[in-house]
Amino acid sequence: MSNETEALIAEYFATGTLAGLPRDHWIDGQWHAAAGGDAMETFDPGLGRAFAAFASGCEQDVELAVNAADRAMRGPWSKGTPAERSRILLRAAEGIRANAERLAVIETLDNGKTLSEAQSDVRSAARLFEYYAGAADKLHGETMALGPDYVSQTMLEPVGVTAHVIPWNYPFSTAARGLAPALAAGCTAVLKPAEQTPLSALLLAQILHQAGLPAGVCNVVTGTGAKVGAPLVAHPKVRHVTFTGSVQTGSAVMQAAARNITSVTLELGGKSPMVVLADCDLDATIEDALWAIYSNAGQICSAGSRLVIERSIHAEFVERLAARANQLTLGHGLKNPNIGAISSLQQLEKISGYVEDARARGIKVAAGGTRLTDPASGSGWFFAPTLLDNLRPMDRLVQEEIFGPVLAVQVADSAEHALELANGTPFGLAAGIYTRDITKALRLARDIDAGQVYINEYYAGGVETPFGGNKLSGFGREKGLEGLRSYCRVKAVTARI
Ligand code: NAI
Ligand code: MG
To answer: What's the CA gap between 45 and 371, in Å, rounded?
Structure first.
């Protein structure tokens, strides 16, 4: 561990906070106190206690931020050269890397995840800015062949002011995932981080400012979904909303945007299957299943939260996976255990509720199943890595997103049966396929209803790979060149000559 990280950790455990944390909104290139003067606290889930206060915004703050973003649409960012945008976004990537240690420590404290997970999130955020910096000056239109008497071309224009409503499970990298392509396309933005994890979006805005982003291009308003998120997505000057979160809130966001005919990208829940066939590489698949569900304490929209497994290997697989789950260490994220905390008490109670219900109904709990505290401090919000075995297709543990370290096991009698089980939920975000038979793998990949399919490695892909869902998991794609589409509108210009 570096000296800088060690010093930050020592400071936190000695004082219960860190010096210099942001606490106001970031609007029009400067810190802005909440219009109503209200504040909220953010919690360190690893200790279950508040460690910082931040601005609790309202409609007035949203109005200021959207107006700043709207003015900035007429300024040098949107009207200037793509090459200059590219240079500034590249400097932002460097700025993220230069601040990586402090960013990762703050993200760990705010969210509860392990330090190594937070470090990886920060790296992927830097990579997103680097990737879209490279794309900013390569957004081309086309020419259409209408014969010798016409010149017809399309131009890509920035869609306008964009709103980004961010969840608490990947606060920094999700902010970067929407913001980097929006900025590359020449849009301006207002970000609303989740009230559980407000800090890293504020730090990102500051880094962008230092990289040379003009005032008003990126604004951050913190506070609740009701008081900040709702007026933001309903604002008539917002032309695109990028939302990641629950299905219920996603639907409300879409309805609010519909009143202004504002476009939306919705990245919602999932109940993604890992389809494991009898001919898979058993050792590798068990290890992969472990991290598909228990990374980030299971709080991942695309987590492999269902194991759909062929009957002939089911018993051995579950026994060995349970043994591995029982070995995993839990603790405060800054101590870098295998699994960190659950991000909020509310989420912990939701997870506990599902597992209590399973127990009450006599479902076999093959591993975990209990709420825990950090063994070192006796506090914090933790849940043991859990395996629920042999579930029926219509069980709510199969049909509903739990968003915690809880794996639901379903037994299949054949590859065809596995496909039916895999597609048997209202979600369609991701799916894993495990087999040594490439034909079976590609047939399943063809037939599974999901936005992304991973063969023999869960979460395979990079910032280059488009990501998004089908069915209740949402629509629109983020990451990759696809991720730029939502932020560009096409203008066709045709001349008779
Ligand atoms: P949520 O969807 O309510 O919150 C996500 C974001 O939306 C937050 O920034 C929140 O402040 C904002 N928000 C809330 N109401 C809003 C509104 N009316 N208009 C605009 N923005 C609004 O999710 P919540 O309550 O934090 O978690 C509930 C469940 O949602 C979780 O248990 C999990 O199942 C799912 N979830 C899924 C995520 C994903 O990555 N797909 C991320 C977070 C939660
Ligand atoms: Mg927090």
So the answer is: 13
Residue 193 CA: nearest ligand 1 atom is 9
Please list all protein residues whose beta carbon sits less than 5 angstroms from ligand 2, which is an ion.
42-43, 110, 196-197
Is residue 457 part of the annotated active site? The answer reads no
- 30 by Cβ neighbours in 10 Å (0-12 / 13-18 / 19+) ranks as exposed
User: How many A from CA of 232 to the centre of ligand 2?
Assistant: 22
Nearest CA to ligand 1 atom 44: 245
CA 334 vs CA 104, 177, 338, 339, 478: distances in Å: 10, 25, 11, 11, 30
CATH architecture of 3-268+474-493: 3-Layer(aba) Sandwich (3.40)
Instruction: Choose the catalytic residue: 267, 310, 401, 478.
Output: 267
Scanning 73-192, the segments in alpha helix (DSSP H) are 76-79, 82-98, 100-111, 115-136, 171-184
Q: Per-residue pLDDT for the chain (497 aa), expressed as one digit of tens each?
A: 899 999 999 999 999 999 999 999 999 999 999 999 999 999 999 999 999 999 999 999 999 999 999 999 999 999 999 999 999 999 999 999 999 999 999 999 999 999 999 999 999 999 999 999 999 999 999 999 999 999 999 999 999 999 999 999 999 999 999 999 999 999 999 999 999 999 999 999 999 999 999 999 999 999 999 999 999 999 999 999 999 999 999 999 999 999 999 999 999 999 999 999 999 999 999 999 999 999 999 999 999 999 999 999 999 999 999 999 999 999 999 999 999 999 999 999 999 999 999 999 999 999 999 999 999 999 999 999 999 999 999 999 999 999 999 999 999 999 999 999 999 999 999 999 999 999 999 999 999 999 999 999 999 999 999 999 999 999 999 999 999 999 999 999 999 99
Global pTM reads: 0.98
**197 C-alpha to ligand 2 centroid (Å):** 4
Name the closest ligand to CA 194.
1
Which residue among 246, 272, 299 is best mutated to probe the pocket of ligand 1, counting the most ligand atoms within 8 A of its Cβ? 246
- Whether 194 is in the pocket of ligand 1, judged by its Cβ within 6 Å, is yes
CATH of domain 273-462: 3.40.309.10
Is ligand 1 within 6 A of the CB of residue 233? yes
Ordered by start, the domain boundaries in the chain are: 3-268+474-493, 273-462
